[in-house]
Every structure is written in C-alpha cells, then in structure tokens.
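Continuing the batch. This is chain 6 of the set; chains 1 through 5 are on the previous pages. Same settings as before, nothing changed between runs. Recording input and output for traceability.
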Amino acid sequence: MLPSLGFWIKTAFLFLFRSGRSTAVLSLMLLTAVATLIFLSALAVGISDAMIRNSVSLYSGHISGFALPQALKRENLFVEGVTNVLKRLSRYGILSNEGRIETVVLIGIDPLEELKSAAIWKKTLKGKYLKGRESAVFLSRPLAEKLDVEPGEDLRFSSGPGAASTRFTVSGIYQTGIDQLDRSIAFCPLAVIPAGAETWSAAIFLEEGADPESVISIYHRALSEEYDFKSWAELMPDLKQLVDLNYISMGFVTVLVFGVVSLGIACAFVIFILKNLREYGIMKAMGATPGEMALLIVAEVILMNLAACFIGVLVGVLAVFVVGKTGIDLTAFTSHNRYFTVSAVIFPRLTFYSLGLPPALAFLGSLAAAIWPAVLVARRKAADVLRIV
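Output for chain 6:
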C-alpha cells in the first residue's frame, strides 16, 4: 500500500510541476488568502487586546477587589501574573463651594503607584495630577462645573450635613468620556483622606496574556473564599460581548473567503484536468482504478495546498511582525469610542486562533474542492476519455 501511495504522490507532484503556470496561479490565490486572513485575524486579536487594555488600564485593572478588610495587606495580592495592586479607600459625602454642594464618592489613592498602572491621569484637562501627601482633590469636569471651581481653588468635604469638614485644594480637572468615572467622583491622596470605613478596594493589573479567572482562583485558595474579586469580564459584560463578537465575525469572514477560494480552486482544477484529460485517459487504459485516479487528484490538491499554505503563513507572520513593531494608529476613527480612551494604536498579535484557523480552513476547503474534479476523472471511462481527445 505504501509504495503505491508514494507512487501516486510522486505522480501528482510531476503533474503539478509540468503545469507550472496553472499551479503557480492557483497557489498564488491560496497563498494570498491565507496570508491576508492571518494578518486580519491577528489584527482582530489586536483590536480586542486594545479594547481590553484601554478599558482596564484607565482605572479598574484586570481584577477588582471589593470590601477587603484592613487585615489583608496589599502585598498579599502579589501572586504569579500580577504586575501591580492599587489600594483605594472610598468615602461618601458632600463637596461644597460657596453654597454649591454635590454628593460625591471621595476615593483615596496612592498617586505614585497609580501613575505606574492606571492611566486616568492622562485625561487631565486642567491643572495637574495629585502628589504624595498634599491636601488636594482631582475632580471630573462635570463635577467641577457644577461646583464652579478651577484648579487652585478650595473646596470642603464632609460626610454629611452638620458633620466636620476637611479643606481640599483643587489640584486638577479630568474627563474620561466614561459616565461612571466622570460622574460624582473625586480623588485625593490616601494620606489625607478622612477617617471612615475599615474596608478597602483593589485594582489589580496583570501581565499580558494572564488569565484573570486563574488569578482569582489563586486568591480564593490562598486567602479566603469570602473575599470579593471580580474580573473585567464580569464587570464589563458589554466589552466581553464585543470581544466575542469580534472573534465570531472574523471567523465568519474567514469561512466565507475560503468558501469562495475553494469554489475557485474546484473550477480551476476542472479546467486543469480537462487540459490533461489525455494523460488521465491513458492511465485509466493502463489499469489505473477509479480510486487511484481520485487519489491522484486529491494528492495534487493537497500538495499544492501545503506548499501555498506554508508560504502564506510565512508571509502573514512576517506582515504581523513588521506592523506589530509600530502598530496601526486608529485615532481618527475612534476619537469618540469609550473603548479607546487611552490609546487607539492597534498591535496585531498572533494566537493559535489567528495563526491556525486560516490554513486549517484552507486545507479543508481544498479537500472539498478536490471532490468535483476527482469524481469527474474517476467516473469517466478510459474509452470515453480517449474518444473525446
């Protein structure tokens, strides 16, 4: 069986080599489709990465911890895959300025640590970001407009009407374009936040590619099941759906493209076979069975597919590598998109999905494309073929 299989593979190679121009045209079509779809799939992954990166790096982190006890130290949350943990304290109260009052959530942060991971400081419109221990607040633009304050002016914060108040100076004003962060939120350094509840929250940032659910599992095993940690996917289900939709859409595009390519290959191979019909007829007259003739056609398609896919993968990977160095700036198209508030630069990234799906579908499509030509040759009788020729 093996020598026979080797013979037909060799014969298929000789057929392809002899019809060099036809083989080159078909291979180029397949090569171009594979390379293009590898790049587009990597770009789709890069867009998903950018949306996630923009959303988590602005403020929340990949994982958020809620109502954590003071006994739990920030250092205890540094496990494998974690790059930074930001500690935050929240106080509910009132900010006032000359008769104007607004209910707010005052969030105490460590400005130096925030600069390392969170990007909300990049959205500063006026003034400057917070410093270590200064008695200052960093306000959203809508809140500053309601209180009618500018950087350098003073405000007072109290936990409620009639309660003791603390004076703060407006350090800067920001605007993210995201309602949850621009509405009734103010920031101040941890060192000067008024005393209050004994719990704190955490924004946990992870390494590229780290799985938030795996890190949360480590926390529950090593610390306590009672601690409330949620991943970005739980807190931002709309973003999770967009990422999933991005992959599904790219999958549909890939299937449709290779459906068209496969049809083109099938039609081209029928023409290819008709051109070489005499040779196929002579082989059948010499005793080649219909199964062997079908094997010959399938072997031709597979050999051509493997060569074209190999080169296509190399071209696609090279394109991703070249573009991935500088990225693609989509600022002009995403200036009002909440998922690109920090940076609109897309970096294509190869994954098993982006690298494996196009050549796999190309291979399956080519096998499907080989059915029609194989049946055409296998069902023709040698006498009929030679009579046509």
